[in-house]
Amino acid sequence: MATTNETTVPTAPQQVVASYPSYRQVEQAVDYLSDQHFPVERTMIVGRGMELVERVTGRLTSLRAAGLSAGPGAVVGALIGWLFGWFGWLDPLIASLLLALYGAVFGAIIGALIGLVGHAVTGGRRDFSSVPGFRARSHDLLVDTEVAERASTLLRSEGAPGVGEAPVPR
């Protein structure tokens, strides 16, 4: 007997019942179907026309590169220091919180140095920081063929989100 989880792709034949320009709108449509007691486990949201979007967050100077790397370095150093103190791996025994503090300082210094070296290695080719992501141009709502007509009727009914502008029936 097959178990169902969130990552399982449905094997039943499906058809597109509506297309939406934004994820928010298709999300509202699925929520509306759920409110109408439609079996939403028989739906799937598919993004079409995927594109990489990189939001530039600012100029990356040597000082900023060092600062951005010092934070994660401090966290790793604090964790390592705390573990050394917790398991008593250093003699004489030093309090784990004090070792975590020393580890954070040491980790921040090492992280900053790694950030500086990493920035210097690029040679000015990438003097900005950014956050990459993906977005779709449109979103299709697929429903199992057996219940597609009911979903389509519900989405065209009065009170459904986006009636008149979205969904775009197929």
How would you summarize this macromolecular structure in one to three sentences?
The chain has 170 residues and is an alpha+beta fold. The chain has helices at residues 23-35, 62-87, 96-121, 148-156; strands spanning 14-20, 43-48, 51-59, 128-135, 138-144. Helix content is 44%, strand content 22%.
Rounded mean pLDDT is: 85
Low-confidence stretches: 164-170
Helix proportion of residues, in percent? 40-55%
Shape: elongated
The largest pleated sheet is described as: 3 strands, antiparallel
**Which sequence of SSEs, written as H and E, runs from N to C?**
EHEEHHEEH
| Count of individual beta strands | 5
Beta-strand percent range: 15-25%
Indicate the multimeric state: single chain
Instruction: Enumerate the strands of the largest sheet in spatial order, edge to edge or round the barrel.
Output: 1-5-2
Q: What is the alpha-carbon Rg in Å?
A: 26 Å
Q: What's the domain count?
A: 2
Query: What's the helix count?
Result: 4
Alpha-carbon distance between the two ends: 34 Å
Secondary-structure-based class equals: alpha+beta
